[in-house]
Specification:
The protein is an alpha+beta fold. Helices cover about 30% and strands about 35% of the residues. It has one domain: 2-Layer Sandwich (GTP Cyclohydrolase I, domain 2). It has four helices and six strands. The strands form two sheets. It has a four-stranded antiparallel beta sheet with strand order 2-3-5-6, with helices on one face. A two-stranded antiparallel sheet has the order 1-4.
Length: about 130
């Protein structure tokens, strides 16, 4: 059986374009000087194992105390989705997410917890943090 592709099948979809172009956008903290915590849960994180190419799934928990900048939520969603086809270890993914969020927003404190779904009877949780 032969499957034909139309031009629209090979074009990048608008969501794919947004993910590819995505950057961590920030905006001014509306309460500079007040310590408060922002908690974000990202339950649909995916990446690929750098050794097997098998998909890995995780829930990413981000908790931070902003300083001058706050990360825009849609930007985080697009940024996290950019990992979907990336071959990256659990440890590197958690550390890279932390590094990128710190670089974008320069928070007072930031923690990333990457809770990976069990695969092959192994459950991995990576926790990394930054303090100014």
């Amino acid at each position: 059986m032969t499957v034909s592709q139309t031009d629209t099948d090979t074009e990048m979809k608008y969501g794919e374009r947004q993910i590819e172009a995505g950057e961590l956008i920030t905006f001014p903290n509306p309460r500079v000087g007040r310590r408060y915590t922002i908690n974000i849960t990202l339950p649909e994180f995916t990446c690929k194992c750098p050794f097997s190419g098998y998909p890995d799934f995780a829930t990413i928990y981000v908790s931070y105390i902003p300083d001058d900048r706050v990360v825009e939520l849609k930007a985080i969603k697009l940024y996290i989705n950019s990992y979907r086809d990336r071959c990256i270890s659990h440890e590197e993914a958690a550390n890279q997410i932390l590094d990128d969020l710190v670089a974008a927003s320069d928070p007072l404190e930031l923690k990333v917890k990457a809770d990976f779904s069990p695969r092959g009877n192994v459950h991995t949780v990576i926790e990394v943090e930054h303090k100014k």
